[in-house]
Design a protein that fits this description.
Blueprint (H helix, E strand, L loop, with lengths): L3 H11 L6 E6 L8 E7 L2 E7 L10 H11 L7
Antiparallel strand pairs: 1-2, 2-3
Length: 78
Amino acid sequence: MLNGRDFDWICETLKLSRSEIVSVRPNPCSGRNNGTFILETVRGPVLYRVAGRGTERFCSREREKSAYERLKGRGLTD
């Protein structure tokens, strides 16, 4: 499940208060390497991904971040 640090980051990023998060549930379609959660907020649903333990050994989070930044604004990812 999500911890307090996760909630702090989500609230800061989305400019929400904790009281605006209505519910949190595990995503049944979660991947093998990461955990994903569906948050119902007063503004609508949000998918939150938590990097799986040990995944840094076979993937580069910096390269992943760079790829998402290049795709931003193209309607392919958030």
